[in-house]
TrEMBL record:
Cross-referenced PANTHER family: HISTONE H3 METHYLTRANSFERASE, HISTONE-LYSINE N-METHYLTRANSFERASE, H3 LYSINE-79 SPECIFIC
Chief localization: nucleus
Protein name: Histone-lysine N-methyltransferase, H3 lysine-79 specific
Localisation: Nucleus
């Protein structure tokens, strides 16, 4: 009995391995073929004014892309092309590049929370295979960018995009310009900070201290610096709070017992919930939020808004030390040379205040830990 069970497990493992190998071979063949086609036939020119896709229509085209490639997205994600980076990466500043994908319904919720407009630029920092970037381009019609550290994930995303653009144009629809860039966010800040709206999947602190090499700033700190450099009115949505930003304008003014002083800080933050829900494109009862979450798991998202300040020098803040000159004289929150956040007052060296974790964040974190423990526990 045990021998038969072990043989069955080996057969299943062999089948999955063959699927992954077939997908990788198909991607390599298709990319080579698409390059030959592009040399013979220029890409289809997209019109400035074009009909956009609804979410259901986008999902239908995504399924069409899967059919053209011959593999479901879940199979692609299990291949070494996508999984590489979950353990370690060869980067000077980064230890890991954990992979995870938002599903269609949650992605549309992200679009709604960020309130992305057609004439804006969207950037996904850590874009994986680029599904969020492509859904934004198709359903909003804006310029959409994705920055990803792992070159093979960019390779897979580019392969999907080639077929998606073909299907979109074939059916008479249009989509915003899509661009994927392979690179490290610590070196590609200018690619990101031009965004009007940005999304960062830093769930479970994968961009926190454990993501960075010893002695390096965390990726969350780099993300916070990118946000600070974005234009007033820009938005960034993250799945963990960016505590290195310090206090929001509302929090800073409350502690200062001040009225609406726009120089107290350069941003506001609000919490939003991404929840599993029923959708017409999902065959089962509810669609989870993400590839790693369950049908009952909600995820808290944090919306950061760069606020207007009566200064053209960049993001400003006021020191929390009431005896300091910086209590009334604002200073830049970004270092001119490093373009990283300043974490101490330039006048008195007082550290910038870090916001307390909200009760909802704490309960969300403890809830995730309980859910993880329950999932890991053996069945009774």
């Amino acid at each position: 009995m045990a021998a038969a069970l072990e043989l069955s497990r080996q057969s299943e493992a062999d089948r999955k391995r063959r699927e992954e190998e077939a997908f990788e071979a198909e991607v390599a063949r298709a990319m080579a073929e698409s390059r030959r086609e592009e040399r013979c036939h220029p890409p289809y020119p997209l019109k400035i004014e074009f009909p956009l896709l609804g979410v259901s229509e986008f999902v239908g085209l995504w399924r069409g892309v899967e059919a053209r490639i011959g593999h479901a997205t879940s199979v692609m994600e299990k291949s070494s092309l996508v999984k590489e980076g979950n353990a370690r990466v060869s980067s000077r500043s980064q230890e890991k590049a954990q992979y995870g994908r938002l599903l269609f319904g949650a992605t549309q919720k992200v679009i709604e929370i960020l309130d992305i407009k057609r004439d804006e630029t969207f950037v996904d920092i850590g874009s994986g295979i680029g599904n969020v970037v492509m859904q934004v381009a198709c359903t909003v019609g804006c310029a959409s960018r994705g920055l990803e550290l792992m070159p093979d994930r960019v390779f897979v995303g580019s392969r999907i995009l080639t077929d998606l653009e073909y299907l979109v144009s074939e059916r008479g629809w249009g989509m915003g310009d899509c661009d994927f860039k392979q690179g490290n966010l610590t070196h590609e800040k200018k690619y990101c900070d031009i965004a009007d709206a940005a999304f960062v999947n830093n769930f479970e602190e994968v961009f926190g201290a454990r993501s960075a090499k010893t002695g390096s700033d965390s990726l969350d700190r780099h993300v916070a610096s990118i946000f600070a450099a974005m234009r007033p009115g820009s938005r960034m949505l993250t799945l963990e709070p960016l505590t290195s930003l310090g206090l929001s304008r509302k929090e800073a003014n409350l502690r200062r017992k001040d009225k609406k002083n726009d120089l107290a800080s350069f941003f506001e933050v609000s919490e939003h919930s991404l929840s599993p829900a029923r959708y017409e494109w999902h065959d089962e009862d509810v669609e989870p939020v993400a590839s790693w979450s369950t049908k009952s798991s909600e995820i808290t998202a944090y919306l950061y808004l760069r606020t207007e300040q009566h200064s053209e020098d960049g993001p400003m803040y006021l020191c929390s030390n009431h005896r300091c000159q910086g209590f009334v004289a604002p200073t830049l929150a970004l270092d001119d040379e490093t373009r990283m956040l300043v974490d101490r007052c330039v006048y008195c060296d007082t550290p910038r205040r870090i916001p307390r974790q909200s009760s909802s964040s704490s309960s969300s974190l403890s809830g995730r830990k309980r859910a993880a423990a329950a999932a890991a526990a053996p069945p009774s």
